[in-house]
Structures are given as C-alpha cells and as structure tokens.
Write a structure and sequence with these properties.
about 700 residues; globular; N-(1-d-carboxylethyl)-l-norvaline Dehydrogenase, domain 2; alpha/beta; about 10% strand; Rossmann fold; binds 3-hydroxybutanoyl-coenzyme A; 20 strands; 29 helices; 2-enoyl-CoA Hydratase, Chain A, domain 1; 7-stranded mixed sheet
C-alpha cells in the first residue's frame, strides 16, 4: 500500500490498482481529495503491474460531492477537471466502486469512469440544484447521454437520489455486487472487463439518446411549463435545464463550456450562497451548545395528546406515521369522534392519491386510541397539550396531568402564544415542561419550535429534539418570549402590512410585492386562507379594525368566498371593491392622507423590522444563532430558500442599509422601528449576523 497523501492510498492487488479515498465524514472533493485522485490515478497509470484501476472510498459513503465549504474561497489543489480528463483518457479501465451516496461531483467522477459497480444500498444523484447550483464537472453533459433528456431534466432539477436497482435499470450503474463485498466485487468485475477485452466505454461518446432527443425539442418547453410553479424565483432549475438543452443540441465540448459558464454564474451569485447557508443551517440547528449530543434521553414509546382539534389531530398523525402509538383525549364524545374522523379521512385521502395503502391507513388508525379520560395518559412517555389558548384552562390541565403522568414523562404544550414558564408553575415538576410548537397543518409543516422554559431539564430538551427528528421535523430550540421566534417576527410584518393599507397601499399591492419577493402568498391572502375570524367574536366585535368590519359583513375569508379578496367558485382571488371602500373609509376617519406607496417601501417596511426583531431575539438569547431564525422562517412561514432566511437576507443587503432605513422610519413613524442594540453594534463593528 502506498500513501498518496493524508486522504488517499493506492494498493496494487495483483493486476488491479485500488485507489482508496478516506476523508470523513463524506469524502467530499476537497483539495486533498482531488490531489489524492490526481496522484493516485497518475501512479496507477505508471505502474506496469496494474492493468486496471478501481476507485473506492472508506467510511460511510462514496464521494458525496464537491466540498461545499470551499465554494466562495480561492481554489487550492489540483483541478477536478484535470483529474477527470486523466480518468476518462486512461488506457486502463477505471471503475468506480460505489457505496453510500455518490452525489454531485462524486457522481460526476463516477460518470467519468468507464464502469460503475455498486452495492444494493448505494444511491446516486446530482443534488446541486438544492444548493442553487448545477453539476459543474460534466454531469449535465454525461447524465443525459445515459438516461436521455427527460429523465436527466427530472434528476438535475429535483436533485433526487436514485437507488441502486433503478440506477442499474437506467444504465447509470453497470453491476450490482453483494452488500459488504464491494471491493472484491469491483476487482472481480474489472478483471472480467480486462479478460473479455470489453471496450473502454466513455459516456461522453454516447450519442443515440441525444440524437433521439433532438427530434423532440418540445421536451424543454413542456418541462418548463409543467414545473413553472415549483421553480418560481429559483435560478438554478432554469440553468440546469439550459445545460441539458446544450447536451442535446451541442457537441460534448461545447456543452461543457455552457455548463462551466452557467456554473460560474450560479456559484458566485447570492441565491447559491443563500442555499448553501441553508444547507449548513439545517445541520447546525440540531447542535445545542449546552445540551451535548450525549445527554441522556427519555425513551418515548407512547404519546398522549390532549385535544383532538385540528392541531391535536395533526400532531397525532406525525407520531402514528413514525410508528409510535398515540392516545388522544377529548372532553366530549362528539369532539373526539369528529377528531378521529378527520384523522381517518386525511389518511384515506392520502390512500386515494396512491401515496399509502388501505392497509397502512388501518395500521395507523390501529395505533390510535381515543378517550375521554385524562387518566388514560398515565403510561404516556410524552404528553402534548393542544387545547385552545387560555392560560387558566391550560394551567388547570397541567395541574391535573401532574397527578396522572408517570414520573419522567415529558409534559409539553403546543401553545403558540402563552408563557410556558407560567404554565410550568402548575406542576411540581417544572423540569418536565417544554413547549412543542407545531405549525398548522401539523402533519405537513416541517418546522417544530422546541421552546425551552426556565426550568426545562436537558434530557427533556435532548429528547424533544430527537423525537422531532424521528417524526421528520426540523426543530429549532428557542426561548420563552411572546410569539417565540417565528410569530414574534411575524407580528412585525403583520403590523406593517396593516399600517400600509391605511397609508396608501391595498392588500393586493402588499401581497403582490411579498409574493414576488418569493413568499408563497402575501399576508392578506394568508389571512383569507386561515380565516379572518380566528380569535374574532361577533359579540365582542366593535368594528374597530378592518378585520372586524370584514367579519361583521360575513367576509371571513376563503371559506365564505369573501375576505380581503372576493373569491370565485374555484377559489380564485380578485381584488374587492368592498374591502377597498372599507379601507378608504377607515383611513379617512383616522384622518390619514393616503399616498402612493412604492414596492420598495413595502419590502422595507415589512421585512426590515423582521430582521431587527431577529436581532432583538438574538440579543435576548431567545434563539441560539441567527441561522436558527432563518430555519424557522424558511420552514414555518415560507421564506424563500433562495434568500436564505431573514437574517441571511439582512447580511446580504447589508446591515448598515437596514439600520439606516430603520432609523429613517423611526424618525418618521416612531418606535415600531427602534433599532435593536445588536444591529447597531454589528454595524458599528462592521460585522454580520453570520459572523456571530
Ligand atoms: N461538502 C462539505 N461538507 C459536507 C458535504 C459536502 N459536499 N456533504 C456533507 N457535508 C458535511 C455536513 O455538513 C455534515 O457536517 P457536520 O457533521 O459538521 O454537521 C457532515 O458532512 C455529515 O453530513 P450529514 O449530516 O448531512 O450526513 P447524512 O449522513 O445525513 O447525509 C449526505 C450524508 C447524503 C451525503 C448529505 O450530507 C448530503 O446530501 N450532502 C450534500 C451532497 C451534495 O449536495 N453534493 C453536491 C455538492 S455540490 C457539487 O458537487 C458541485 C459539483 O457539481 C462541481
């Protein structure tokens, strides 16, 4: 065995040179890994005993892509392209031996080899699009030559991982060998290649699929049209499509030039920077500075849920989906039956769409027990209260739970607004109390705010984070404060949106600007969807707000076909004259001189106070890091991924710019815009949120 460098070695196994890479955790193509490939292939070619070359990796996976941490920095070490050219032009067959995930640049290395051998659990894919990129090492030109344009379009724009079996069927893998015997399997395979004098297949020379695709230029327009909604706002999918188009229409070398040009544009742009930030933020969010990974956890084998309403039911589904039995408690049989019925209906709808079998439905329903007796939660390891937002009622429930729940059980509340420290005073074991703030619909939305109260114990926090992962959520640990992180920031946007419509904009102006910014919908369309009457009561309504007036007129949102907007029978929204008149009347009663409001002001008024509030949250220690706030807003509120979250966005546009605007608005409109101390400090120090 010869060490090439610290991450690669070459072994001559009889007549086969085996180049092994070992760069944990994922053998990413860092400078040293590229150097190991370059040096290893060079040595294998020079070694007369070696008739063929196997490229294999140690650890959990084959090369999982370029080293994402290197993007944006000055390149070091040999170029990947030179190494790939050496592999592709090798007179000796080169075989990629794949386990784990051959992704991105890693799969591109494999595509340059003459053959690919994999174990059954291996996967491959080109997920660059998820980082706002495209495969920049020939992947967009080689992939379609194997699978054709249509399949290539699907793969590069979705970033999906393809399992070994499917990869073999598609021609991406040449041979599947026994699990755990990859090295020997690859050596046997390459000896066969040599013995049978099989041709040195070069993917770049394949032409039949491209010729066939050239006869169907409509593939691309059709694909763009079919995915327009999904790709809205993102640059990378379109750039990926252009590369596949180039593969079909241009010679290989020309296609590579297109790929390189577009890759360079993406990798130096803000969208990819944002998406790379999100990639790391999603991994950082699980790391808790004072709750180490080895903190003891409480086994959670059964879950109790109090309240079978929309939230309780949705929360229950998460656990049922993960195979954890749930007992759900209601106070009245009718409410219980309704709640259980909704859960069943949701599952049956999924089954109807073919995403679950009827058997799966019954299996899940079989793990769900409904009851009217709180005592039935005595054996639950985790109990989540999901009743309406009333402190006295919640405290009463927790007081009762304290007497029923077994020692060590986690007592969680799904409150989105109430003070969890106060809820915890209702029990003699405040260390067991935590907030698990699910977002509606709770079985769909990825975000979970795990709210740490003053006395919450570390095992309870560690267990809550682990259980969140188990049920497929992305969890952010936050502290107790009004609205926690997500809704506290939302309140800023809502306040400004309401002010803007009195000052001169219309709801559809605000919505359009925020939709164009990248949100799935604006605040007024959102209110109409949720229902304007949430938290509104006819008896108490005094017509003091626009919302009051709309509700009094039975304009309660989409469900009544009217709210801020008018809706037709297909729920298409139209600006409403009625709403407009109410707004104008309100503004005039308040003596507001309406003015023209620019799109720019809508963005600045709605978004900058959010960034500022995020700074206050950090200052108060209610979020661990700024990227956690980004995770909350991306996964809970539809913040566009390609803008990286509010805090990243603040850094992108410049905190000095945000601060200057906040000060200007404060002078004009008062302390709603009072800059956070942290924001002032960062600007004074020339720093960013990302630098904290
Ligand atoms: N570069 C640098 N670090 C990487 C990395 C990469 N490509 N892929 C993963 N890591 C790091 C993670 O940040 C994490 O670090 P941490 O432990 O310090 O938090 C660690 O490796 C382990 O990653 P995961 O926690 O994600 O481990 P999993 O086992 O759950 O998943 C994986 C493994 C499927 C490989 C997943 O990490 C992944 O999807 N990685 C990204 C793959 C990718 O996007 N590749 C394309 C890169 S761009 C490219 O190749 C451009 C080329 O075309 C030129």
């Amino acid at each position: 065995m010869t060490a090439i460098n610290e991450v690669g070695d070459l072994t001559i196994d009889g007549d086969v040179a085996v180049l092994t890479l070992n760069s944990p955790p994922v053998n990413a193509l860092s400078g040293p890994v590229r150097a190991a490939i370059d040096g290893g292939i060079r040595q294998a070619l020079a070694n007369d005993a070696a008739k063929s070359i196997v490229l294999i990796c140690e650890g959990r996976t084959f090369i999982a892509g370029a080293d994402i941490t290197e993007f944006g920095k000055a390149p070091t070490g040999p170029s990947l392209f030179d190494a790939l050219a050496m592999i592709e032009n090798s007179p000796k067959p080169v075989i990629a031996a794949i386990h784990g995930t051959a992704l991105g640049g890693g799969f591109e290395v494999a595509l340059t080899c003459n053959y690919r051998v994999a174990v059954p659990s291996a996967k491959c894919g080109l997920p660059e699009v998820n980082l706002g990129l495209l495969p920049g090492a020939g992947g967009t030109q080689r992939l379609p030559r194997i699978v054709g344009a249509q399949k290539a379009l699907e793969m590069v724009t979705s970033g999906q991982h393809v399992g070994a079996k499917a990869a073999k069927e598609m021609g991406l893998f040449d041979e599947i060998v026994e699990e755990g015997k990859l090295r020997q399997g690859a050596i046997d395979f390459v000896r066969k290649v040599v013995a049978e004098k099989r041709p040195l297949k070069k993917v770049r020379d394949l032409s039949d699929k491209m010729e066939a695709d050239r006869k169907h230029p409509e593939i691309f327009a059709d694909f763009r049209k079919a995915n327009a909604r999904k790709f809205r706002g993102f640059l990378a999918p379109e750039y990926n499509i252009q590369c596949i188009e180039a593969a079909v229409n241009l010679p290989f070398e020309e296609g590579i030039k297109v790929e390189q040009k577009l890759f360079r544009e993406l990798v130096t742009g803000t969208q990819s920077a944002a998406q790379r930030h999100v990639f790391f933020a999603e991994r950082q969010v699980w790391k808790l500075p004072d709750v180490p990974a080895d903190t003891p956890q409480i086994p959670v084998n059964t879950v109790g849920i109090i309240g079978a309403g929309t939230m309780g039911g949705g929360i229950a589904m998460n656990f049922l989906n993960a195979g954890i039995p749930v007992t759900i408690v209601e106070t009245k049989q009718e409410a219980l039956d309704r709640g259980l019925g909704v859960i069943r209906k949701n599952y049956e709808n999924t089954a109807k769409k073919g995403r679950m079998t009827q058997d799966d439905v019954e299996k899940r329903m079989g793990m769900l027990k409904g009851t009217l007796a709180l005592e039935d939660l005595k054996d639950s390891d985790l109990i989540i209260e999901a009743i309406f937002e009333n402190m006295d009622v919640k405290k009463d429930v927790f007081g009762k739970l304290d007497k029923i729940a077994k020692p060590g059980a986690i007592l969680a509340t799904n409150t989105s607004a109430l003070n969890i420290d106060e809820i915890a005073t209702a029990v003699k074991r405040p260390e067991a109390v935590i907030g698990l703030h699910f977002f509606s619909p709770a079985n769909v939305m990825r975000l979970l705010e795990v709210v740490r109260a003053d006395k919450t114990s570390k095992p309870v926090i560690a267990t809550s984070m682990a259980i969140a992962k188990k049920i497929g959520k992305i969890a952010a640990l936050v502290g107790v404060c009004p609205g926690f992180v997500g809704n506290r920031i939302l309140a800023q946007r809502q306040r400004e949106a309401q002010k803007l419509i009195l000052e001169g904009a219309m709801p559809w102006d605000v919505d359009r600007v925020l939709y164009d910014f990248g949100f799935p919908m604006g605040p007024f369309a959102m209110s109409d969807l949720a229902g304007l009457d949430i938290g509104w009561s006819k008896e108490k309504s005094k017509g003091e707000t626009i919302r009051d007036r709309l509700c009094e007129m039975d304009r309660r949102g989409q469900k009544t076909s009217a709210g801020f907007y008018d809706y037709d029978e297909n729920r298409n929204a139209k600006p409403s004259k009625v709403t407009e008149d109410i707004i104008l009347e309100f503004a005039s009663k308040k003596g507001i001189n309406r003015r023209t409001i620019s799109d720019e002001e809508i963005i600045e008024r709605c978004i900058y106070p959010m960034i500022n509030e995020g700074a206050k949250i950090l200052e108060e220690g209610k979020a661990i890091r700024s990227s956690d706030i980004d995770i909350v807003w991306i996964n809970g509120y539809g913040w566009p991924v390609y803008r990286g979250g509010p805090m990243f966005y603040g850094d992108t546009i410049g905190l000095d710019k945000v601060l200057a605007k906040m000060k200007q608005f404060q002078a004009q409109m008062g302390d709603d815009f009072k800059p956070a101390k942290l924001l002032e400090k960062l600007v004074a120090d020339g720093k960013t949120f990302g630098s904290l």
